[in-house]
Amino acid sequence: MDFIMETVSNAFSTLPEGNLPKWLLFTSALGIFNSIQNYCTDSLTKRVYSGTPELVTPMTGRMFATWTWSVSMIRIYAAFHLEHRFMYELGIWTYVIALTHYMSELLIFKGCKISVPFMSPFVVAVSSLIWLASSYDYYVKY
User: Fold this and answer.
1) Exposure pattern of 3-20 as b/e (b: 16+ CB <10 Å)?
2) Where are the domains positioned within the chain?
């Protein structure tokens, strides 16, 4: 157990300074939790897509889980490498894609309705994009 704690502690010591890297790790942890949840059940996903919950199937839940897991992994790498333009911009793109998805489901496809389950990922995407855009010059060095 000490080995695991020491390894985790050493990994976190390499994070760039500031709260943005921690935020990226936090949203990644939430995404990984959401992925696990989507592999097990579609009940929470049906709440997000309350406009057309009948279209949320176990298979769409697993596809959503895989997508969420993959962007979470990109965000983890970005959190540790914000000084590199390409990693920083990949991190930005994960939120742009998420925001595009949720906005199109709300406005075009009507899969989502404005509700607390919908607003959570929407607010995370918008606030993360604002934070990343405003901190670009602070973090990006290469």
Assistant:
1) eeeeeeeeeeeebbeeeb
2) 19-139
Rounded distance between C-alpha atoms, residue 37 and residue 134, angstroms: 32
- pTM surpassing 0.85? yes
**In this structure, what token pair is assigned to residue 110?**
């009507």
Give the distance, in angstroms, between the CA of residue 30 and the centroid of all CA atoms in the same chain.
7
Dihedral of alpha carbons 127, 131, 134, 136, sign:
negative
Exposure on the CB side of residue 12, measured as CA atoms within 13 A: 13
Question: CA 130: distance to chain centroid?
Answer: 14
Nearest Cα neighbor of 69 from 100, 27, 120 is 27
Counts of helices then strands in the chain (DSSP H, E): 6, 0
pLDDT at position 113, please?
96
